[in-house]
Amino acid sequence: MPAAKRPPARYQPKGLTILYEDRDIIVVEKPSGLLTIGTDRDKTRTAHTILNEYVRKGDPRSRNRVYIVHRLDRETSGILIFARSETAKIYLQEHWQETDKRYLTVVSGRLAEKAGTISSYLAENSALTVYSTPDPALGKLSHTEYTVLKEARGFSLLEIRLLTGRKHQIRVHLSEKGHPVVGDRKYGKGNEAHGTLALHAGSISFTHPVSGKRLTFTTRIPDYFIRLIGSVEWPAGNGEGHEASPLSP
After folding, report:
1. What does the pLDDT average to over 75-91?
2. Is residue 73 flagged as an active site residue?
3. In the CATH scheme, what is the code of domain 9-229?
């Protein structure tokens, strides 16, 4: 894959970590608190605007831009993929079901079943709250696969494999199971003791839109999670598991 030339240091993105970049895609790690893209109600700085500035290398007249492939909630940290062309974006979105997406989360309590799949029809009400409904005409069928990795201090660390990608899916499914994500003020039912949402998009594997090569990226377990539940070895790797970036110095 052709290397992408790294812009001068003053144009490096601030607030994001680039894991990988070439002429077709950029893979980043987003911190908690940063929107993926702006909304009608919120025009604050986002991952999208930061990367648009980055690829324009300081030239506001540049036609270079990045394209949204998928999103993470503002409170969710972890891996995001951006495309550098509409063709690459379309390819990645059309093959999204083949993308393996794994999250880490710390939830309250201990689950009776240490592995399983939560399935329900998810709908959204006028207050923008997502909930499960028995009526398939109202909701979209959603599946969340989970495995308990560790239990300690009244918490459980789970690895989540997202089989469908509905809004707030992980948070709703775990809350409705009686084990809300730590720090989830929306679905946690009084879970205000912790100010940070313990949900992290930790690993992703997908097919490159041009080379056809399978790429896998894995990030570290967030320090916040370790403070909650103690040290742990994540099976997908507790370090920088992504392939060497083709960025040139």
Report:
1. 97
2. yes
3. 3.30.2350.10
